[in-house]
Every structure is written in C-alpha cells, then in structure tokens.
Amino acid sequence: MNLFNLKKYALYFGVAFCIVNSIQAQKSVNKNLGYDISPVNIQDVKITDAFWLPIIKRVQEKTIEYAIHKCEEEGRLDNFLIAGGKMKGEVKGQMPFDDTDVYKIIEGASNTLISEPNPKLEKQLDSLIAIIKIGQEKDGYLTTWRTINPVKPPCTWVPVIEGKRWESLQISHELYNAGHLFEAAVVHYQATGKKNFLDIAIKNANLLVLTFGDKSNQVHGVPGHQIVETGLVKLYQITGDKEYLKLAKYFLDNRGNAKDYKLYGEYAQDHLPVIEQKEAVGHAVRAVYMYAGMTDIAAIYKDKDYLNAVNTLWENMVNKKMYITGGIGAKHDGEAFGANYELPNLTAYNETCAAIGDVYWNHRLFNLSGDVKYFDVIERSMYNGLISGISLAGTEFFYPNALESDGVHKNNRGSCTRQAWFDCSCCPTNLIRFIPSIPGLIYSTSKDILYINLYASNTAKVTLNKTELEIKQQTNYPWDGKVTVTVNPKKESDYTIKLRIPGWARNEVLPGDLYSYKTASTAKVNVTINGKSFEGNTNDGYISITRKWKKGDTVSLDFPMEVKEVVTNSKVEGNNGKVALEYGPIVYAIEEMDNPSLDFGKVSITTNDTFKITKETNLLEGVNTIQTSQFKAIPYYSWSNRGIGKMKVWIDYKN
Q1: pTM value?
Q2: Average pLDDT, stretch 578-602?
C-alpha cells in the first residue's frame, strides 16, 4: 500500500512515527445489546469476489491515501495543531464538521486492518491520532474550529452569540463531531487493541456526560445533526459504562421537547418527540442516523414505543420515499426527504451519505428481527445508489445521485459529472469508512442458525452452538444468479442455514407497493444439496435447510435472471408511462456515451422490444449491458465515469 507521507508533521509530535505499543486489552465486544442476531465479524470473512473485492481494494489502496492527502491539503490536520497551540493561524476549511473527515478515514482504515494486518497503515493511523490528541482540550472538548476561535466559525451559517461551547447546537456540529469520533475510535480499538484513540473518545464522552442532562447545571439540548447517539452506544458496548447509554437515550428522549429548548423543526427531525414521529422528514442523513440510534434503544431497552416508531418510519420511507436505486432524499433544498411520492429524477438528491446511513439502519433492524425485507433494501442500496457515489478510479465522487442527467444541470454541487472532492467532503470519507466493512454484512448468526444474506465469493469462519465451521461461497453474482455454498464443520452437527432469496427473485422490487415488475417472472429458484434437488418452505424469503451438516456438504443455488421492467406507483407522477430496467439486483441506465445518435427525448421501450444481455469485459471494468434495437444500457452505478453526458433510468413505455 502506497501510503501518504505525514512526515511534515513529525516536528509537532516527535514520537508519533513510532508504533504505539499495542495494549492487549480485551477487544471482544460486549454483545449484550438486545439484538438476537449478530453479524459475522469482517475479520472472519475473506472476500475473493470479482465484483466487491476490486471496489474494497480500490478504497483501501487508493482512496484512503487520496483522502488523507486532501485533508492535509485543505488544512484538516493543521486545525488540530492550531487548536493545540502547536501551529499558528485561523481555522482552515469551510465546514464546522471538517474534523470528522479525519475520523472517518481512520475508521475505514481500521476496518481495513481488521480484515488484514498492515503495520505501515497502522503506524500511519498512530500518526493521525497523535495529531488529533494535540487538538483536544484538557477537559476532553474536541471541536477544533471553536477551540481555535470561538467567535469565528468557518462558515457564515453557524451563528455566534457569545462564542461559548454548545451554543447554536442545531448547527454547530459539536455533537456530530463527537459521534464520528466515538464510532471511529471503537473500530480502531477493535482493530488494534490500542487505546490511544479510544482514550481520546472516552475523555470527550465523559465531558458530554457531565455537560448534558436533566440537572439544573446541565445543558438541556440535543444535537442538530444526529450520530452521537449511535457513537455513545458503541462506547457503551466496548466499555460497559452505562452513562454513555443513558446519554444516548437522553438525547433521543429529549428530542421534540419544547420545554427545554427552542425546537429545530422538521429539518432536524425535532418537531415531535421521536416516538410520535410517523413520517420520514427533513435532512435524510440526520434522519437515518437518528433512526439507527432509536433502533439501538428499542433493542437494548426492549422499548415498544421506540420499536413501533422505527417500524412506522421505515414503512413510510420504503413505501413512499425511496428511489428504485435504494437512494433516499428527494430534495436539494435541505438535502431532505420530499413529500410522500415526491421522487423527481433530474433533481433527485439521494445523498451518498444517506444511502450509507440507511444501510446501517436496516442492518440493525435485521439484527433485531431477522426479517428478509431489510436485506432487500440493503442489497438494492449497495449495488446501485451507494457505490454510484464513487468512481471506478476511486478518486471522483457523487455527493447527490440523480436518476437523470441532461448534461447541463449541475446537480453534483456545481458539476454535472463526478468531482474530485468537495468543500463539504462528508460523502467521500463516509464511503471510506463504509466500504471496507462490507464483508461484515454477508453473514449473521443466531444460536444454531446461520443467515447468508448477501452473495459474494468468500471464505468465512463461523461458530454455531460452539461448533466451528468454514463456509465458502463461489459465485459470479450479480452478473449471474448461480451460487455454490460449501460447508465444512469441524464435526458433524445439527443446525439451520438460511439462504436469502433476493427480493428481485421473489418478484418484489422493494417491500411495499411503491414499485412492481410489469410482468412477474414464473421462473423458479433451483436449489440442490450435494447434487440432489431440495424444496423447502420459503415463505419468509429464505431457503431454510436444517440438517446434520458434514464436511464438504454443498448447496447450489440458481436464481434465474432475466431483464425485468419496473413500474412505479401511479402516485409518483414523474414516472407514469415509464419503465426502468433491471437485471438481477442491478438497476440500469442509458448513457449518452454508449448511444451517441440516440434522441434522449424520444427514446422509448415498446411491448415488442426484446432484450439481450452482453458481458463486456472491457467496458467500465467489466459489466453486463442490456441491448435493444434502439439503445444500450449500463449499470446505473457505473455512469459518469467517461465524462459529461446525458443519462436516464426511467424510459418512456409505449404499447
């Protein structure tokens, strides 16, 4: 790995380039969080997949280095040194949450270390952590812009009244900064066993515990941008300190409480108490981060009011506010959800961060319930509206992810194609923290049940009922639907393996009636065990196989793939009379580069059209294309990798 050189900063922290001695603290996670289902750790899943491995490796080997360079170039690292008095100057950058870009890079790099030890990368993280420590105040406070000059925020939209901590909480991002700090520090500790970053996070969290709460001498406020809640829960998970858990619940319980502070309104999901909220509104990233925190509270406290609320909010979002790509957030104004069924294409927002946050939330909901529908949302988001956020080169990005482009409208924060970076760089660094964690989404366990929820070539080590087994997947998914799963237990044992039938293979675009296939497929999923046909109960969306498993047992799956036409609920006015094309889990788009003579205003699909699937190994790093007599379509995630041009997902349909 060619890592960026941080020697420029050696002057300020002489010992930082020596690897901090690994403290052999207990790295195991306290799993008593109320979730009956646990994901298999990424440390135990070795990806060999032709689709996902290049994406993960690209982030690990290229995007991390690139982002560190950008953080250094734009002063993200200098800010910690200026805050700590080791460098002179005013705050650099334009956002009050610029600190979090460094935290998210460390989190993604730490996930990389969990997957595979890398002393050089580990050493570099120690250097970054040493820089962060310099910027932390003695009592644990850590938001560099306010430490540097509390009356001069980096942007005009953070109001300054007296220049004190915690004023203007609705927009200051002090608690948002803390949340990403906590999340990253926990992953770093799990990866290395070192407490150098965790100690910084704990010191900051202890300050929050003293500062916020119901007591008369405490601040009665809540974060404007949520994520501190899940960060506090993760700190509780590692440390066992219930004060962190109590504070997370306080921040959620107190939201919408007009007696304590002036409410922030729908934009920040602060218009009602969280358990009374029934519609996904406001800033989409804030929303799904909050819903993830609510799900944690529902699980830990067995709180039915919280559970009912997250279920209601999920139903509203998936049934009325989700794009076919799994994207969420219809409006550029406020980076927000629109009204029910408001899903424009050219001006769609679909922030990359929102797709990532939605995966985090749906994963929690699955761990709580085991319901297949949550992984239907996860899979759709991952293969479409999430990885669309990063280029095939790993160094250009979409902040919003539109479903149509006229080649003129500058939907991507001032550009109509991918950008190399943003003044607000939350999306690139969020991709860095998320993508290396993808192996941890494939498998989950509960007592004597193994869930296989995603299909990708890999080898994994799993323990069920104290029996160790190795699972091996071989597949060319998502380009075809054939999957082979080989089971190798240490000893013959009885347990259940549940293999998810993807929603698209069950004639279900997404849960609910927002989308449907124009024609339902009659093709059957074929399952064999050791070459013999198997038919079991699949009513819950899984192929459930309970038996005494022995070494070498093989399950073969064949999910029949065909091009499918998707239609939208008629209440989405902009999509009436249009269809979108899918093949397996992949949503397709027509891009001008492949269709230079096509009149995008007149392109259509008719009842007489036939579709041809072609594997093009030299196009966009190897994709299946869909071709008709009129056009060629490519996977949506891969568009805008070849320059500026027109694109559309939804195509006119003519009988």
Answers
A1: 0.96
A2: 96
